[in-house]
Amino acid sequence: AAAAAAAAKTSVATSGGDRRTSNRPSRRLVQIREGFNAVGAREKSKTRSTLDRHQRNNERFILYLFENHPRFLKEDLCHQLYDADAASDYSSVEATYYLYRRRGGKKSLVERKRDYREMLLRGIISNFLGQPGKTPRQLVVDFIALTSNAETFADYLTSMRKDDGGIHKAGNCLSHRSSLGFLFQRYKFTPSREFDADLKEYVEGIKNKNAQTCGLNLE
């Protein structure tokens, strides 16, 4: 009887210890609790896919500025892009092109080189911007000069084409407009009301023109 009582006490003590152990938060829960602060909340205000989309759109726009309006870019970024562009080595693209075609690739060698160049230059731009959603590493654009005229961004929106030369749907225009606002937000830049009003008018015109091109009825 004494042995049974001792065993019962041991069992109760053990089960109590298990309950205490099971009440300890997991490592993942601890990380979530530690990240529950203002910085963490702001980082979670947008999903990872949204942040990645903004990053891609900003890279494309900044590359467009480099190729068409380099005066709007900061000198450090502009110099690095010029240097990388001048030193581009396409030997790897040329060496693998035959295999690319054998595997069913449809693009010409010129197009493959163009894609390689874009990837190279966008990589530099991405490095300047830093991780999506985080504080940017370096300045990329002279925002005051850029927002002196909304036509520059409107020209960018209307210059985008599909691979077959077709015009993108209005949603693509709105996506890039949203990403421009996100770029401003990252650098804590507030454009003038005049710029916002002008850009809004351009975007509405692009949407209407897009609908007309696609044969849609706006009424």
Describe the structure.
The protein is globular and about 90 Å long. The chain has helices spanning 2-22, 27-34, 38-43, 48-68, 75-86, 91-102, 109-129, 143-146, 151-159, 170-186, 193-213. The chain has 11 helices and no strands. Helix 4 crosses helix 10 (170-186) and helix 5 packs antiparallel against helix 7 (109-129). With 219 residues, the protein is mainly α.
Q: Which key phrases capture this entry?
A:
11 helices; single chain; mainly alpha; about 220 residues; about 70% helix
Overall form: globular
Instruction: Encode the helix/strand succession as letters.
Output: HHHHHHHHHHH
Oligomer, anyone? single chain
* Rg calculated over all Cα atoms: 27 Å
Low-confidence stretches: none
Number of helical segments with 4 or more residues? 11
Helix percentage range? 55-70%
Q: Brief overview, please?
A:
The protein is built from eleven helices and no strands. It has 219 residues and is mostly helical.
